[in-house]
Amino acid sequence: MYVISAIISLTSLGLFLGIMLSLAARFFKVESSPVVDELEALMPGSQCGQCGFPGCRPAAEALAAGDAQVTLCPPGGSALAEQFAAILGVEIDLSGMEEPEALVAKVSEETCIGCTRCFKVCPTDAIVGAPKQIHVVVADACIACRKCVDVCPTECLQMQAIEVTLKNWRWHKPESVLFEEAA
Amino acid sequence: MINLKRLLRVRGGVHAEEHKHATADLPIQTQLPIPERLYIPLQQHVGKPAEPVVKVGDKVLKGQLLAHSQGMISAPVHAPSSGLIADINFYPAPHPSALPIRTIVIETDGLDQWCELKPVDDPFALEPEEISMRVGAAGVVGMGGATFPAAVKLNLGRKTEIETLLINGGECEPYLTCDDRLMQERADAIIDGVRIMLHGLQAKQAKMGIEDNKPQAIAQMRTACRDFDNIEVIVTPTRYPMGWDRQLIRYITGEEVPAGSRATDVGVLMHNVATAYAIHQAIREGKPSVTRVVTVSGQAVASPGNFEAPIGTLISELFAHADVGESQVARIVMGGPMMGEALPHSDLPIVKASSGLLALGADEIKPGAEQPCIRCASCVDVCPVGLLPVDMANRIKANQLDAAVSIGLKDCISCGSCSYVCPSNIPLAHYFKYASGELIGRQQAQHKSEQTNKLMQERNKRMERIEKQKAEEAARRKAEKEARDKAKREQAEAEEATP
Amino acid sequence: MKIKPVSGPHHNVNRGVSRIMLHVIFALIPATLFGLYIFGWPAVNLFVVTIASALLFEYLCLKMAGKPKTVLLDGSALLTGWLLAMTLPPWAPWWIGVVGSALAIVIGKQVYGGLGQNVFNPAMLARVALLISFPVEMTTWANVTPLFSESAPDFSAALQITFMGAQLPDALTGATTLGHVKTELSLNHWLPESLNSFIDGRDAWLGFMRGSLGETSSVLLILGGLWLLIKGVISWRIPFAMLFSVWIFASLFHGWNPAQYLTPWTHLSSGALICAAFFIATDYVTSPNSAWGQLVFGFSCGLLIFIIRTWGGYPEGAGFAVLLMNAATPLIDHYIKPRIYGRNRKGAPLEVNE
After folding, report:
1. CB-CB under 8 Å, C5 with A181
2. pTM of the model as a whole
3. What are the φ and ψ backbone dihedral angles of B44, each rounded to 5 degrees?
4. For B225-255, what is each residue's pLDDT tens digit?
5. Domains (ranges, CATH) in chain B?
6. Which of A71, B372, B410, C177 has the fewest CB atoms below 10 angstroms from its CB?
7. How far apart are CA B246 and CA C256, in angstroms?
């Protein structure tokens, strides 16, 4: 008798909870956001391929599918990784992540022959110039994709760190000196 | 003397070792020899840098306009002494990085000859707008260190119809006594400046907060304002950071300035005592802001004191005057020891914000070894804002800046109280400065990436268009060619048909 | 004079972690000396063994973790060992001290990552683990036998007790106040008679009674605690909230039924309460950060102690109470945060009232 009442009560409890859950799933459904689009929008978009994927969109798809780490994008640095982690709801340890050094391409005036190859490949039109004239990089538009460096026949295009001025000077991160002597 | 009800409003803070005795009882020295060269940075204020109106080789008189202000928030710069303009170029700025800043260099002639001044006999007959205009033209900025253009603030206060003008005589930073001495020696001028500001603001009353470790300044100021019912001196406890404007506002009025709002939103406006003095000079004597009182102190200073020095004087010259032992200097600090910035060397000029120059000895900076955090929560207790410095620093350490922002990083005022009390010597304030800078950097990077994305899309569209045009062109040519071929064939056939 | 950019403040109080630890140890000295005096040589042996083994385990852990040996000198291991020794029955065998130290240092502290990382108070973790694992040794309470008094064991007898596992004669042991009351109540012997015949109130406050090595003298512990308060090492919030909550609940129940519930003053003067309130619950690492959080923590500790003492299976509950609240500390810190200037408790900007 006890067995029967136990079975009945537990079964009905299970049924009840199951129905409640399915109702809750129906009425409190959270619209799943188009995660891939959201992730892709955050990415630098230069299709640089440093992550190992053919471009930003495939990388975003892999991220959303869980096939890639949130730290996959070197140009995005830890700022991007933190945003990815927040969207995907994963815990991350960023303490070991290296920050990307901000670089821009710079044309050396001595060796530029005005061949126009660089500004033809620049994805953001950051290089201005005309045939047989020295080209100039607009630093604000340069995304450091290195495409121009690859095509330059005279190696006059080089990546350089952005010049530090009072406007963009920032405090460095304090180095943790804990137990340094043991290391 | 201290009102108990008000005392309960004070939150956090530290009672730092004062180190003020070395200079608090010495009169301000005004007879400094004029430096041979003055280096006047074009940006000594919040806002846009000033634009030079003089050329190299021009002869200028003391008080003459060197560079005019640019845009809404800016301040002009005047010649601190007479002489020749030697250079207008980039020179190291009085900044921890000592990176270059656009600077006008004057080679002084030693005459210290004033240009023609336009003093006002009765400022209270002037229109309030006229007061702000004159203050703005004199290049007066917040002398407490904030360096916000004073005229902009006055205009804002008048427009928002504030009731109370608060005068900050807190000077809560250790070592510094420049405001203290100014209040002791020039109380009448300060009160006059306060009255002029009240007129310019059309405000009812002024309240001045002074920490109780400056009894003489309190007495002098009370004597100076006894004839004016609308000016009151309020004694505050000595607890850093009492001079933080919002702490003082809460102490005096009991109101808290809501996050993201301005002091004027709770009906008050705050100015420093030294600013009041500068405004008095600007209006009554017509003298622009070209000098300031600087406290030179610290263990490595043999004869410390307060010096009224022209803006643009090199720190090294002031140090030479105060007999600083070069070998004993472990760190040079501009401002107070809590919020001031360490400078890499002494060949940098003083600016309108330089309240103090400290040559600290090795014993004073005591760089203790960093130890693990023991969660003692001292930093939580002393934070005047009510933040959790320990948690914020841990998140920043792990590069989780957004997480740090979520628990209040942006409300941090960088007062350094947390670092000051930390038994484990964790550089908490440094973490917060780093994170704040990094956040600005990220914001700019994001902005840039949005812009470049747009550029990229435009280019892609253009490329597509070109491709399309090319394809159309090719198709057209192909069609033409086919047409030509066809015509040829037809012609050939026709020729064949008619031999 | 070239200097790399260095952030302010360029000035600090330089208290140092080890200074704090030494302050706490200094505050413990009077009560410890008193405990060593009234329980004699066996207590001295146990005390020395516990502290020495705590330092040894710390050293071994540091070595394994590859941390510099200078960390050993920060005083935290010394303090943990010291606190543990104070909470042990004074005549317990040597291995209780050694096992306790191992539990405290290795399990309680180093496996979490060392100083500042542990969730539970190491000394309390060790004490509770010992109490559950070795109930006999941990509840054999020696009589008060001051050094050099007639009944006191001499040095060689003390070595026998501590190291050779000599059986303690029943005449030399007995129950603690709380244990006695618990037994008597279970036999339907009502208060206050059962207590009055057992101990005199003044002796209880001074510490002339059975109990843990360093926990008997409430007066000396309070003195040490007050000194820490004056020195600013601890804040008043946790001790005050804890003692207040025990006092208020004890008063309520005692007022309702004096025959079954102890007076609040007996509660305060017996067991580990004073020691826990001033020295254990105030442990920085395992207590909340915010002022209100600390009050909640202290109050809850006191409530738990009262509940365990009154209705629980054990006569004393300070260890359990502190551990339970240690576990709740992250939760308290998460929910109770200081209000940020210009914002309400939820973090939204204040309204401008016109």
Report:
1. no
2. 0.86
3. -120, 20
4. 999 999 999 999 999 888 899 999 999 998 8
5. 4-296 (3.40.50.11540)
6. B410
7. 51
